[in-house]
Hints:
The chain has helices at residues 2-12, 56-66, 70-88, 134-143, 169-188; strands at residues 14-17, 21-28, 31-33, 37-39, 42-48, 94-96, 100-104, 110-114, 125-128, 154-157.
Amino acid sequence: MYPLVYKYLVLHKKVSVPGVGNFLIDSVPAHIAGEQLLQPTVSHIQFKPETALADKNFYEFLAAEMHVEEIDAIKQFHEFAYELKGNIGYADGVQFPGIGTLRKQPSGSFLFEEESGFVDFYRPIKIAAATVEADAIVHKHTTTDTEPDFSNIELTPVDALEEPKKDYWWVYALALAAIGIAAIVYKMQ
């Protein structure tokens, strides 16, 4: 059931577990950090120990993914939620693969620790510009009605600053073509 909960969370940005709470994906928009580094959008998973409401879309999703009737999917999910709630009370808590770890504190509240590296696909981009600084762009953009001129800014991924390696795939293609032609000529004799 864990992979289905994770899949629904990634697709719909929210999933509710009855008796436990809601998991949400919160995104921080891209921004300029430092003088010439563009930080990408970063997503984080949050847990809110609110009363989880029944989500008809989630149950339809479960039924379709599990290839069962919706009533059976609801029943299986509620059994999963009940077992999950009991397992959270153990010292190690419950590990949600791809999401994080949920533990119950002595006070009865839940403690959620996000799994590191969630949706960490993008790297910062270095902004290479001779005369434009990030602060000047923001200042000009906020104080005038005209759009700033970005024509002299070149965005380059940080990993792509190295010179690309030469690729000789065409040599292998020519060699295979020559072998193929030789085989055809040999077969025709």
